[in-house]
Amino acid sequence: MSTLVIRLADNLPDTDRNRQAAETAYERLAATGWTPIGGYPGSDVHWEVECNLCGWTGNMFYSHMRRDDRHGHPKRHRGCVALATRGEALAAWLQTQPTAEPGEETPATVRAERVAAEGEARAAHVEVETGPPKTPGPRAKRAASESAGTDRSTPRVPAGPKAAGNRIRVQKRTGRTGGQPVTVTVIHVNCACRIGAATLVGEFADVPAADRAAGKAARGTGQPPAHCGKSAALV
């Protein structure tokens, strides 16, 4: 396998200046918890990216992403993890990303290549489509809205009785921010996140039980429990 290749958007000229700008942008995204899906399009053009803190995908302006907000945190999208735990969540994610020697791959670079390849495959599929796209009718739009929810960027985990197939877990993990240890308690509902035995608090029959266990586990940490951004609805 090869190391991550800096990619430019198809409509961006391949010049030394654009290459340097793209390299700076890729480094900023890697340091602030983003994975680029498309090639670098320029500073003030929408760039399709994935948030590594909650799993959201969408378009962002790099001119916004390269600046910190008024709280000193890298700017995020609407519906990302709560501001109170955003710095800790980023620090915890960065702790999982090993530093690579020159020419060596890390899981983050491998994942970025995979996401980029998937984006190219989607783009190629769109290019071979023939005929105008079909416009969904009112009934289809209403069904899609009810199925997807009103805000795709904000994960919702409805509580209710346990049904067969639900997997509800609580994780307590420790990272570092500003040189200080930070402990975060996270509730995972029907997600595929890998949780080691050392950080798993337990598995639970329903969300209320998981909430109670997470609240107990979070005592003394100074951080309220949070829901995993990749959680799915109960079945």
List the helices and strands and how they pair.
Blueprint: H1 16-31, E1 34-36, E2 46-51, E3 57-61, H2 62-65, H3 83-95, H4 107-127, H5 138-148, E4 168-177, E5 180-189, E6 200-204, H6 207-217, E7 226-227
Parallel strand pairs: 5-7
Antiparallel strand pairs: 1-2, 2-3, 4-5, 4-6
What does this entry look like structurally?
The chain has 2 domains: 16-99 and 106-126, no CATH class; 168-227, no CATH class. Helices cover 32% and strands 17% of the residues. The protein is an alpha+beta fold. It has a 4-stranded mixed β-sheet with strand order 6-4-5-7. A 3-stranded antiparallel β-sheet has the order 1-2-3. 22% of the residues are buried. The chain has helices at 16-31, 62-65, 83-95, 107-127, 138-148, 207-217, and strands at residues 34-36, 46-51, 57-61, 168-177, 180-189, 200-204, 226-227. It is built from 6 helices and 7 strands.
Q: Helices and strands: which structural class?
A: alpha+beta
Write down the Rg.
20 Å
Total number of distinct structural domains: 2
Gap between N and C termini, in Å? 39 Å
- Percentage of helical residues? 25-40%
Q: Strand-residue fraction?
A: 15-25%
Shape: globular
Order of helices and strands: HEEEHHHHEEEHE
Q: Average pLDDT value?
A: 75
Query: Total number of β-strand segments?
Result: 7
Number of helices: 6
Sheet having the most strands: 4 strands, mixed
Strand order of the largest sheet: 6-4-5-7
Unreliably modeled segments = 100-105, 122-131, 149-163
In short:
The protein has 235 residues and is α+β, with helices and mostly antiparallel strands. Helix content is 32%, strand content 17%.
